[in-house]
Amino acid sequence: MIYRSHIVAHPQWLGMLTKQELPIIALENVSKRYADVVALAPVKYAFRPAAVTVLIGPSGCGKSTLLRLLVGLVRPDAGRVIVNDVELTATNLQQWRHQIGYVIQDGGLFPHLSARQNVLLLARHLGRDASMIEQRCNELADLTGLTNTSLDFYPQQLSGGQRQRVALMRALMLDPQVLILDEPLGALDPLTRHALQGELKTIFAQLNKTVILVTHDMNEAMHFADQIILMRDGEIAQSGTPEELNTRPANPFVSEFIRAHRGWPSRLN
Ligand code: ADP
């Protein structure tokens, strides 16, 4: 077992899990190559339960590879992904996936299904109780600020911001212990993005889940993060709180990256 069986049998609704019950996810010297390209050098890291950890770094630094390893979409060449002291394997992967809510950049909603059908799809497929599903859907609509009417729309009838709210509802429907968001605001216009940044932060605070978010925007990372992992060339250049990265950058790359994203003059210019 990778986590307590009672949680699997009786999914808890919002805020029911204590920090101690959330899974400890750790990477133990995990590496991944694609032919000659080192996508991830051996990486060691333990994600903090109930915290928001933001993965950031230049394009091609290995952020997506790291996420895919966490959700088991790719297998490491070496090292282990550990969940609560147990290695993630082909045998326990499916069980683990049900504990992960995943939001991708464009939401990934099925275009031929209404927003509501998108949200309910998996819970219905798994035969969850209809009244529980409805209660959960209402709860999540409240959480994300979506109206009943907008849930009857199809994805193309919704704005980009509404689509991402629906994607978030869908990701949270089974009350996963971990929420992973891959550039969730990357495709939005600046105004919508700014508004959703504020709302998402409030939502994360209410959720009491382990949140792992990828962005390439340092301001966004600073806004959301309890912990930041700044990556470069498949390695962790530095991890720590926003304040630690700001005030005690581990190397020149970290200070340059932070400076560049603030629009401050670079030492290299
Ligand atoms: P990021 O998400 O930070 O942009 P990725 O994890 O997507 O970085 O990629 C890391 C490196 O691995 C890049 O050099 C990329 O080209 C390479 N890479 C990622 N996925 C594949 C793949 N499926 N096949 C070949 N190379 C890949």
What do these coordinates show?
The protein has 269 residues and is of the alpha/beta class. The protein has 11 helices and 10 strands. A 6-stranded mixed sheet has the order 6-7-8-3-9-10, sandwiched between helices. The longest helix is centred in the C-terminal third of the chain and has 18 residues, at 190-207. The radius of gyration is 19 Å and the shape is globular. The site of adenosine-5'-diphosphate has 11 residues, from strand 2 and helix 2.
Question: How is the secondary structure organized here?
Answer:
Elements: H1 5-9, E1 25-34, E2 37-47, E3 52-56, H2 63-70, E4 78-83, E5 86-87, H3 93-97, E6 100-103, H4 115-125, H5 130-144, H6 148-151, H7 160-172, E7 178-182, H8 190-207, E8 210-214, H9 218-224, E9 227-232, E10 235-240, H10 242-247, H11 252-262
Helix pairs in contact: 4-7, 5-7
The protein binds adenosine-5'-diphosphate.
Strand content: 15-25%
Radius of gyration over alpha carbons?
19 Å
Structural class: alpha/beta
What string gives the helices and strands in order?
Answer: HEEEHEEHEHHHHEHEHEEHH
* Quaternary status: single chain
Task: State the end-to-end distance.
Answer: 53 Å
List low-pLDDT spans: 1-17, 265-269
Largest sheet: 6 strands, mixed
Shape: globular
Bound molecules: adenosine-5'-diphosphate
Number of helices: 11
Give a count of the beta strands, DSSP E runs of length 2 or more: 10
Mean pLDDT: 87
The largest beta-sheet arranges its strands as 6-7-8-3-9-10
- DSSP helix fraction: 25-40%
